[in-house]
Amino acid sequence: MAASAGTLARSAAAVLGAGALAGAATAAYAHFIELNNFTIRTETLPVLPAGSPDFKVLHISDMHMIPGQRPKRDFMHSLAELKPDLVINTGDNLSHISGLPALLDALDPLLDFPGVYVPGSNCYFAPVAKNPARYLWKKNTGDEASQETRAPLPTQDMHDAFDARGWLGLINRYDTLTLKGLRLEFSGVDDPHLDYDRHPGFSPTAFERQPAPSLRLGICHAPYLRTLNRFVADGAQAIFAGHTHGGQVCLPGGRALVSNCDLPPERAKGVSLQGNIPVQISAGLGTSRFAQVRLFCPPEAVLVTLTTP
Which of 197, 229, 298, 305 could lock 37 by a disulfide, CB 3.0 to 4.6 Å apart? Predict the structure, then answer.
């Protein structure tokens, strides 16, 4: 017997209701649970010269701090227990014009360690409200909102605070550090997402007078392919970047749908190769304050152990 029109309508309504309930539950999980499910990912990069001791790098990125984020602050404080040899901060530190005190509080224990930093767009301009799912269908290859429509952030005050604690700013700048007997060369660039990047390259004679184990690192916020390729051409032996949020809203298993740049989505998190050079990309610790959800992509800090092959 054919089902009545009323029965079919009730069945359809039940299916739609179940779908809406599942969607609401997923959104609630993404905002209230996974957003604060902070994790530490560990990686090993065999890039050190023979005879070098292991070297621990703590890679943090995309904090997007706003006032009142106590769980994130507490997690970041706990990272000092890892006792890294170096902290690398790849930008997008703020998501609110009043977020600097909260950021400096969260970073305070980590600023006691040697560190380097580069900025992202959310170190210069506050985010603007927009559809948080927009990035899923719009290919992003640059910053959509003009600078004129975005509130400026306290960039210089933030960088001054980092500098005062001994961190090195690598804003289109080359610099060196010697830590644990390892001579580190850095080539860092300003945010490629804003087209602010200008590559300083590396020095061919940096350690010529004092030969010792050395390593060249490329540091950027947004891992655009042009940026990665330039680091490789300049002679980087490893590259660190952020920006992608690991896709932020992913399919089960963590498969990213987008990278928010021209990097293939499958490379939006973790270690991949550009040529034969390892690229370590952090999924970050935060989100824009207008898109506070994460799904199958928990916020992370990354402890990278550099070792010999």
Answer: 298
